[in-house]
């Protein structure tokens, strides 16, 4: 059963259940039939005995009362002394019963077969006994058993054939889907979206199963395509700093007088920092793709925002660009949320760095609690993002216009990290046009209670 297919298992199960049910029903039917026939035979014996008793009461002699023309019937009149006074069967000289009552399956000496016997007393005390042969009952029972022995196997075979054909017909679309699914390669998975498995006609489970498989394959195909694109873009982005490093080293090796060790170290450090940031962003995205936030706790989001602003200002002072972009935190008020501190820090850091990278002079940070939500917005006074690109800006390695290109320091992964992290924390992130004229990113998270 376990090694067979569904068709074979279902057919064998149907055959077993049908055969068992038919056998039980057959046995019960034969038993009930035999009992009913015997009861009917006893009833006939009782009627015959009543007739003889009535004849004796009318004055007829026992010899006259016991005369019948039935070969399967034995009638006796037994006196009060226990002897047979009259009988319609000369071979039977022994009383079949000595007291009133009924018996079945009685064997009579000198005669074949069994008899149903009924005895009752007449008014004068004599005992009237009538016995009817059970040959017809036994013959009817045997005929019924023979019919059942022949018909039950035929019925079981018929059920097996019907079930085999019905299951085969029902599973035929499943086998077609299996073959089509086996023929889908990794290339076809993303090259032919929406063209998956043929959906059978009808509205039962099989068409719904095919539609569900198609939806699943579409999602897998989309994820596979995104993965291929992600790998391609990541390879391209990593190749750029590596190519710059190799070119810088080769130039320094061929023309050692054209550069100094300090200048070479600075150039290598810049590209190494760029590559390190890209790898770190890829690792963060991989962690967000694989699992939910590991640590959930109450976080003072305003403290986190102010800490990151201080870090960014310190970085500006260290690089000598303190007058490039002003960070406005006048609209930052208290706000608590429940989440992973590391993910919240990634959200704030990436939004701030993205705004600073594209701002002309000012970046404004706003934080407030509204209707059981904490709302964080970061806006700049740069060129902004066109409405058509406001969804695509969250894609990994998204390429927009020159105003927000990655050659000014970004790797195209910061906003993708923001969207993934916010989604992992159960929040939302949107982008609109800012009052300052640039882009305004709004993150909404549940407030801590």
UniProtKB/TrEMBL annotation:
Sorted UniProt keywords: ATP-binding, Kinase, Membrane, Nucleotide-binding, Phosphoprotein, Transferase, Transmembrane, Transmembrane helix, Two-component regulatory system
Catalytic activity, reaction form: ATP + protein L-histidine = ADP + protein N-phospho-L-histidine
Stored PROSITE patterns: HAMP, HIS_KIN
Domain (HAMP) ranges: 168-225
The EC number(s) this enzyme carries: 2.7.13.3
UniProt keyword annotation of Transferase present: yes
Keyword ATP-binding applies: yes
Domain called Histidine kinase: residue spans: 233-449
Domain of life: Bacteria
Pfam family, any one: HATPase_c
Residue spans crossing the bilayer: 12-33, 145-167
SMART domains: HAMP, HATPase_c, HisKA
Group of enzyme by EC: transferase
Gene Ontology MF annotations: ATP binding
Name of the protein this chain belongs to: histidine kinase
Organism ancestry: Bacteria, Bacillati, Actinomycetota, Actinomycetes, Propionibacteriales
């Amino acid at each position: 059963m376990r090694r067979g297919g569904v068709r074979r298992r279902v057919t064998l199960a149907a055959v077993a259940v049908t055969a068992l049910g038919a056998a039980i029903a057959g046995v019960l039917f034969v038993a009930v039939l035999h009992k009913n026939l015997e009861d009917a035979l006893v009833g006939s014996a009782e009627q015959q005995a009543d007739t003889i008793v009535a004849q004796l009461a009318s004055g007829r002699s026992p010899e006259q009362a016991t005369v019948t023309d039935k070969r399967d019937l034995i009638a006796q009149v037994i006196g009060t002394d226990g002897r047979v006074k009259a009988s319609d069967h000369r071979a039977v000289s022994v009383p079949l019963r000595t007291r009133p009552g009924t018996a079945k399956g009685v064997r009579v000496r000198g005669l074949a077969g069994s008899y149903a016997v009924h005895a009752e007393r007449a008014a004068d005390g004599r005992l009237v006994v009538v016995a009817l042969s059970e040959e017809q009952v036994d013959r009817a029972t045997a005929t019924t058993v023979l019919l059942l022995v022949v018909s039950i196997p035929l019925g079981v075979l018929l059920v097996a054939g019907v079930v085999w054909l019905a299951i085969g017909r029902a599973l035929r679309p499943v086998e077609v889907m299996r073959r089509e699914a086996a023929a889908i390669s990794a290339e076809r998975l993303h090259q032919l979206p929406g063209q998956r498995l043929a959906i059978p006609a009808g509205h039962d489970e099989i068409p719904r199963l095919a539609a569900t498989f198609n939806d699943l394959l579409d999602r897998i195909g989309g994820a596979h395509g995104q993965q291929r694109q992600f790998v391609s873009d990541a390879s391209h982005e990593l190749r750029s700093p590596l190519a710059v490093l190799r070119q810088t080293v080769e130039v320094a090796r061929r023309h050692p007088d054209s550069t100094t060790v300090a200048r070479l170290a600075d150039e290598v450090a810049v590209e190494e920092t760029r590559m390190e940031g890209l790898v770190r962003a890829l690792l963060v995205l991989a962690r967000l793709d694989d699992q939910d936030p590991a640590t959930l706790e109450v976080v003072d989001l305003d403290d986190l925002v102010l800490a990151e602003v201080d870090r960014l200002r310190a970085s500006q002072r260290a690089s000598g660009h303190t007058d490039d972009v002003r960070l406005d935190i006048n609209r930052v008020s208290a706000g608590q949320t429940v989440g992973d501190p590391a993910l919240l820090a990634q959200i704030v850091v990436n939004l701030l760095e993205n705004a600073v990278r594209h701002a002309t002079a000012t970046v404004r940070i706003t934080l407030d609690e509204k209707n059981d939500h904490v709302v964080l917005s970061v806006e700049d006074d740069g060129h902004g993002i066109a409405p058509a690109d406001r969804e695509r800006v969250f894609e990994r390695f998204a390429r927009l216009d020159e105003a927000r290109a990655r050659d000014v320091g970004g790797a195209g992964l910061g906003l993708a990290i923001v969207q993934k992290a916010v989604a992992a924390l159960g929040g939302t992130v949107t982008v609109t046009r800012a009052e300052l004229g640039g882009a305004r990113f709004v993150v909404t998270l549940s407030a801590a209670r």
